[in-house]
Amino acid sequence: MEISNYLIAIHLSCFLKKMNIKTRWILLSVIIQCFPILSIAQNIKSPKDPKTTFKASRTNTAIIVDGKMNEPAWQQTEARSLNHFYRSNNPEDHQKTEFRMLWDEEKIYLFFECEDKFINSKETERDGKPYLDDCAELMLIPFPDSLNLHFCFELNLYKAANDLIYINDFYQGEDALIFAYNPHYEVEVNVRGTINDNSDVDEGWSMEFAIPHKALANLSEFYPIEPGTKWMILPVRQDRNDDAFVRRSTSTMYPIYDISKSVHQPNRFGLVEFIDEQ
Fold it and tell me: Could you give the angle at the alpha carbon of 76 between the alpha carbons of 144 and 249, nearest 5°?
């Protein structure tokens, strides 16, 4: 009998919601061991060119999550542009996005700095569809080469979050999405313009995150962050430039394959290396 990815996701979400976080991941680790299809596929390779490895610096000062780069540490870590564009052939909709990342012993910090002439967002519910709005996304695997399983954080300008665990090729080529994953983390947005008013020209927006290591369901304990640790990531920006959400653009830091399928392509994620220097 064939099982759809939708049914798999619903059953997994409902089942896991009834468990505490420790029990969830004990069960998930058993699933991973019992289903060979969840093991790393032979064609999933991390980028080998050292130029593609993104650097995240350690911060020794407190980061105040306010959507602004007030702390000097943000200027001292690497900034990388999201310059691979999809879903739009209009050069005017290929707007600049810069991504930065920091870390300390308790949290990882993310910063998206986005130019945006026409700022639009509608979703207000958790586990909704913020990816149809102006939205910042991060997909990550807290291992250098790992399972077809990644964490996904998607938030729009109202901080409506669609955070989930994504399992590629879970069953007979179908993917599974675990929406029961609702971790606690900080996020703030700084909008420089007007939301959903395209009669004017806006300047842009920024989004800042602080994600505790333990928010990754303690899986990071198997490969903890220290200088030299490498994880796999894909920063993504969704850009919506009209009220009807017809004009759109998706940009990524690393190039992906056919965008019509999804951006959830772990074999196209790049490496982030956590370093001590600034």
Answer: 65
Q: What CATH number did the domain enclosing 141 receive? A: 2.60.40.1190
CB-based contacts of 24, cutoff 8 Å, min separation 6: 16, 180, 217
The model's pLDDT over 1-53, given as tens digits with 9 standing for 90+, comes to: 333 443 444 445 445 555 554 455 545 544 444 443 333 333 334 444 445 89
Domain count across the chain = 1
How far apart are the C-alpha atoms of 119 and 161, rounded to whole Å?
18
pTM comes to 0.83
Expressed as residue numbers, the domain containing 12 is: 5-40+54-275
Q: Is 161 inside a domain boundary? A: yes
Largest interatomic CA distance in the chain: 57
Q: CA 109, CA 57: separation in Å to the nearest integer?
A: 10
Q: Which of 274, 275, 257 is nearest to 266 (CA)?
A: 257
